[in-house]
User: Which sequence fits this backbone?
């Protein structure tokens, strides 16, 4: 359930901010147009229970970052990757201005059969102990029944829960009783997909008729580069996927990495928009051979490194990709 109206993007040099009329936690009507808006600022710090949850998940090896903060609270996420980019876990959560967690979205995914389900258990236990300890056993039982039930929605003493097992992984979402979700700010890049495609075409890329999917090559055609963008109509880009892959017999990870780094810098520079210089720096700083996810400059950034070639070299980093997006809409069980 999404609650909130009046969201409009305001671009200010130096950071992405949005103006929005926010429905309060008391469940009252939406603010009138004349009401003073809250300002949502990218990033921030967690306090109270939200900080306790962040610290607990960081202690388990997840990397945490704040997506946005407003007067009413904020939204954050903690992420981890394993199995050479094949398995991921994330805990997205919202909290009020006192730091109390009011909503959760947990998800684990793996390209390996059964791994997503197993990966969820320790993450769920950590979250349960901090946020809804009284419901811990009830939620754990519901999750353990997923192979037989696929999904279930139920109430606990903390709030309402929904558990699901599907093609996208194993998920647990929860909403604290009597609390309403914060409105999710929407940001976009300065360039539209079509304008980005025009600029990439001038640099030698080949783009499809829809002007959203562009491809190129490196290492005399042995490696492939790609840029996929999406937006709403002619508006700015809201999702951008940039990648470089080389699975040839004599593939060189260092060359692929360098090509990817340059492509990210050039593409983000063309796309333009608040927070993207921070995204570029974060991406460059996290090219350590592992996959990472974070909120950077208001954007969700997923940097995924994949290993293996078509000729059996399982230890060669053959693919580097980054997805920069506004993130999915915040959804929790309706009350």
Assistant:
């Amino acid at each position: 359930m999404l609650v909130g109206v009046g969201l409009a993007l305001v671009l200010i040099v130096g950071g992405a901010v949005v103006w929005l009329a926010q429905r309060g936690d008391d469940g009252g009507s939406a603010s009138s147009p004349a009401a003073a808006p809250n300002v949502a600022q990218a990033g921030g710090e967690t306090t109270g229970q939200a900080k306790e949850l962040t610290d607990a998940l960081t202690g388990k090896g997840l990397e945490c970052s704040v997506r946005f903060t407003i007067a009413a609270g904020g939204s954050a996420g903690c992420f981890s990757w394993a199995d050479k980019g094949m398995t991921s876990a994330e805990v997205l959560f919202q909290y009020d201005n006192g730091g109390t967690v009011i909503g959760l979205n947990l998800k684990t995914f793996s390209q390996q059969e059964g791994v997503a389900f197993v990966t969820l258990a320790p993450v769920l236990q950590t979250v349960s102990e901090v946020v809804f300890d009284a419901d811990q056993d009830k939620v754990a039982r519901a999750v353990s029944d997923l192979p037989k039930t696929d999904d279930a929605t139920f109430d606990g003493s903390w709030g309402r829960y929904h558990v699901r097992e599907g093609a996208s992984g194993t998920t647990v979402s929860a909403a604290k009783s009597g609390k309403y979700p914060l409105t999710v700010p929407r940001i976009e890049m300065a360039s539209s997909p079509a304008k980005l495609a025009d600029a990439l075409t001038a640099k030698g890329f080949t783009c499809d008729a829809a002007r959203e999917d562009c491809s190129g090559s490196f290492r005399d055609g042995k490696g492939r580069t790609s840029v996929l963008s999406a937006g709403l109509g002619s508006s700015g880009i809201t999702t951008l996927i940039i990648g470089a892959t080389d699975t040839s017999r004599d593939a060189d990870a260092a060359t692929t990495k360098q090509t990817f780094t340059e492509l990210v810098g050039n593409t983000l520079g063309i796309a333009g928009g608040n927070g993207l210089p921070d995204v570029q720096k974060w991406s460059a700083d996290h090219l350590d051979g592992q996959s990472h996810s974070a909120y950077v400059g208001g954007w969700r950034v997923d940097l995924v490194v994949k290993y293996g070639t078509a000729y059996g070299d399982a230890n060669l980093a053959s693919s580097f990709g980054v997805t920069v997006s506004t993130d999915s809409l915040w959804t929790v069980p309706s009350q």
